[in-house]
Specification:
The protein has 386 residues and is α/β, with parallel strands linked by helices. The protein has 2 domains: 121 residues, Lyase, Ornithine Decarboxylase, Chain A, domain 1; 236 residues, Alanine racemase (TIM Barrel), CATH 3.20.20.10. It has 11 helices and 19 strands. The strands form 3 sheets. Strands 1, 2, 13, 14, 15, 16, 17, 18 and 19 form a 9-stranded mixed β-sheet that branches. An 8-stranded parallel β-sheet has the order 5-4-3-12-11-9-7-6, covered by helices on one side. Strand 4, helix 4 and strand 5 form a beta-alpha-beta unit. The termini are far apart. The chain binds pyridoxal-5'-phosphate (PLP). The site of pyridoxal-5'-phosphate has 16 residues, from helix 10.
Length: 386
């Protein structure tokens, strides 16, 4: 019997956030999903990147996001846990998962390989390669992807202090993988929210150094993620600039004909795919108490990236604005927005504020602390602020 075809994620559709609040009068936060945004950026990646696009599932594993990306042509997925592998496999028949976490439990390696047919595994240390070798019989069907350490200053979040091998160790790992009968690949991650395209050239230069030391070409080169979102205080270069830099870096390498090029965008693919409608539950002078905050969907604000905010037009607002301190709903004093936010002088209890660009890491990192948990998703057809 054929596996049942999963239905596409079906969410209620509204023309705009204004229509959402008019219909639902929501006292709880609501994620506004914009599938047209997800689709257009996914097409830009699939058409502009010189290789295969893997979506980094951790960035936003919501079913609607996987659905929209898959429908737009993203068929490969960067997974970091067995749960992510299972989710991709069950929701998206035909999709391919790559196990891109350098440290995996033995059970996860075994199940990913046996149950889900995963054949790409990242390592950055000989002990992990040894672990894999004790579980997956060596053979050319399995690709050991060696993750390189890269210290690039132009990214907002650095990702190489925890993972990655320096060039000589990476070359030794690749040679070890080959000697055991596996094939090998190379990867790096320039850091998240990478503001300059040249970080990718730097990474590809390191890749070239490893290939020279190994003396045999890889079967894949994975340039990782890092493609930026457009925040109020952090913008980065244009997407095409990154693709140009990657092509330039690739052109300097003598890659075998059959070598695949991969990337693993998370933020860049989903940042514009969701906004969040919050409600003001109390105003005390210049302090506003919202129904979502630092323990909810606002990890990026907490870490210093600034999201565009606007009042949802449920009534007319004064044109004059002032700065407010915003608090989240939990009882922790640390549940406070780290910057003042400018809003109309006459905002009041019951008004709604929409925050844009919450699609990357916002839903993924929210917690249930104090019983507050945003979990309502609807689709809207309008762009933010239109
Ligand atoms: C988090 C992560 C990504 C996605 O990074 P973005 O900066 O969101 O693009 C890709 N690859 C790996 C290995 C990661 O850990």
């Amino acid at each position: 019997m054929d596996a049942p075809v999963r239905q596409k994620v079906d969410l209620p559709v509204y023309p705009s956030p204004e229509a959402v609040v008019a219909d639902l009068d929501p006292s709880y936060p609501i994620f506004c999903v914009r599938p047209h945004k997800i689709h257009s950026v996914a097409r830009r990646f699939v058409e502009g990147f010189p290789g295969d696009v893997l979506y980094a599932v951790k960035c936003n594993p919501e079913p609607h996001m996987l659905d929209a990306l898959f429908a737009a042509g993203v068929q490969h997925f960067d997974t970091a846990s067995l749960a992510e592998v299972a989710r991709v496999s069950e929701q998206l028949p035909g999709a391919t998962s790559y196990f891109m976490h350098p440290i995996k439990s033995r059970a996860a390696i075994l199940s990913a390989h046996r149950v889900y047919g995963v054949d790409h595994f990242v390592v950055d240390h000989p002990a992990e390669l040894e672990k894999i070798a004790q579980i997956i019989p060596p053979g050319p069907d399995t690709v050991i992807v060696v993750r390189l350490e890269i210290h690039y200053e132009g990214a907002v979040y650095e990702l190489s202090s925890k993972f990655g091998a320096p060039v000589p160790e990476a070359a030794a790992l690749a040679r070890d993988a080959l000697a055991r009968g596996y094939r090998y690949g190379l990867s790096f991650h320039v850091g998240s929210q990478c503001l300059e395209a040249e970080g990718f050239e730097m990474g590809l230069d390191l890749v070239g150094q490893v290939i020279t030391q190994v003396g045999e070409g890889p079967v894949c080169v994975d340039v990782g993620g890092g493609f930026p979102g457009h925040y109020l205080n952090s913008q980065g270069a244009e997407l095409d600039d990154y693709f140009v830099a990657i092509r330039k870096g690739l052109a300097t390498l003598a890659l075998p004909e059959e070598c695949r090029v991969l990337c693993e965008p998370g933020r860049g693919l989903c940042v514009d795919g969701e906004s969040l409608i919050t409600q003001i539950h109390l105003r005390k002078d210049d302090a506003l108490y919202l129904n979502d905050g630092m323990y909810g969907s606002f990890i990026e604000e907490k870490l210093g990236l600034q999201l565009p905010a606007r009042m949802v037009g449920s009534r007319p607002f004064a044109s004059q604005t002032k700065e407010y301190t915003l608090y989240g709903p939990t009882c922790d004093s640390l549940d406070i927005f780290p910057r003042p936010i400018s809003l109309p002088v006459d905002v009041a209890e019951g008004d709604w504020i929409e925050f844009d660009r919450i699609g990357a890491y916002g839903t993924a990192c929210r917690t249930q602390f104090n019983g507050f948990y945003a979990d309502t998703f609807i689709k809207v057809e309008s762009d933010f602020g239109d």
